[in-house]
Amino acid sequence: MKTKLKYITILIAFLFFGSSIADESQKNIYVVPIQDVIDLGIPGLVNRSIDLAEDKNADLIIFDIDTFGGRVDAATQIKDAISGTDILTVGFINRRAISAGSLIALSCDKIYMTEGATIGATSVVDMSGTKQSEKSQSYMREEMAATAEKSGKNPDIARGMVDEELSFEYLVVDGDSLKVEDIEGRKEGKLITLTTELALKYGISDGKSETVEELLLELGIDNYNITRLNENWSENLVRVLTNPTVSSLLTTFGTIGIISELYSAGWGIGGTIGIICLTLALGAGYITQLASSTDLLVILGGLFLLVIEFVAIPGFGVFGLVGIVVLFYGIYLLLIPDIPVGPEVYSEALDGFSWAIVVGIIGMIFLLRLIGQSAFFQKLVSTESNKTTLKKNYKNRSKVE
Fold it and tell me: Which of 178, 270, 305, 348 is exposed most, by the fewest CB atoms within 10 A?
């Protein structure tokens, strides 16, 4: 009997330790999508994913990339987050990594591409596709080169993805000098965009895979657990709130609402709408690093001057006028990205801000009129009016008695 118990104990211990060893050998893989337009909502997803992967001691993070690009400041935040982790990272270019997407891909330790994928064309342009100033191009050119060097990629190709004025005939790949004849962008006047085969040939890509599972096999990982992450509701909300049009309208509605409230008796709908709009716009901007502490201080300074005008000084004077100017200047600063920009960016921001003010004023007037004509508002006003009349009647009655 004792002998049987001994064998059973040994068997249980063997099964326990065997399963423990199997679990320890299993690789913990995280897959993070970077797809569609690169905006200020995606850095939140990337930072959250990296933090979670680090907390869970992940072995590998795969960034599933399929994008035509987007905001440079958002891409730079993503690049910094990826470069800052000690976990092995792979950029899986699942069809395309164009413009800002190529910077994100190059920030990864390794790059794998699907058949027929592309990477490149990273010149900095505005929303209409017009190339921006040399200041912006220079920043992006060297940002790409430095990122490529860090991950062991060729910096000359990275620069050529940004600047069509560069040209070369030879490249050094794995210590060998290769004459380049099959990259169209090697010529002056052409931006570099690489296909999967060219990226493999010139060392930009480390391999070719069609799926995440196939990529893992290429890396020699056959025992793994995959955790796929996606945007949560708050990150989706931030993406909407940081949209330039939405952000401009929110800040304009907020400013007009508060100003109208300061110059009216009591507290009403305008002030409530103003506070909600400004809170949404400034909160989203601060979370995504679009609004700096300086921007917020300028806006708060403008609001403070308006409060002084309203509380301490009757009428409309210097404090009110300066407060409005400072407030609108702070809101204008929110539209300027935190990267080197040229004069055309300031001009675009001013144009967008001007249109937002015009649309915001029209929208606020329409909204207040719509609310004022609603049955609920009319009932509310009627109720308040009745209360006032009753109070007056009660006072008059008391005096008579």
Answer: 178
> In terms of DSSP bridges, do strands 193-195 and 118-120 run parallel, antiparallel, or are they unpaired?
antiparallel
401 within domain boundaries: no
Largest Cα–Cα distance in the chain? Answer: 109
Same domain, 274 and 367: yes
- Asked if 95 contacts 115 with a C-beta cutoff of 8 angstroms, the reply is no
- Helix 134-150, helix 72-83: angle, nearest 10: 20
Nearest in space to 254 (alpha carbons), one of 289, 302, 287: 302
> What is the residue range of 290's domain?
242-392
- DSSP states along 76-136: HHHHHHHHT--SEEEEEEEEEEETHHHHHHHTSSEEEE-TT-EEE----B-TTS-B--HHH
Of 209, 233, 257, which residue is a domain's last?
233
Digit-coded pLDDT (tens) for 256-279: 776 666 656 555 676 777 778 877
Identify any residues that bridge with 65 across adjacent strands, giving them in sequence order: 34, 93
Regions of the chain where pLDDT drops below 50: 17-22, 344, 386-387, 390-391, 394, 397-400
Instruction: Tell me which residue of 327, 248, 255 sits closest to 284, measured CA to CA.
Output: 248
Using an 8 Å Cβ cutoff, are 364 and 257 in contact?
yes
DSSP letters along 205-240, please?
A: --EE-SSHHHHHHHTT--SEEEEE----HHHHHHHH
State phi, psi for 229 to the nearest 5 degrees.
Answer: -105, 150
Q: pTM here?
A: 0.69
| Residue 79 near residue 103, CB atoms below 8 Å | yes
In the numeric block, which tokens belong to residue 246? 């939405």
End-to-end CA distance of the chain: 106
For residue 62, the SS3 value is strand
Q: What is the pLDDT of residue 370?
A: 66
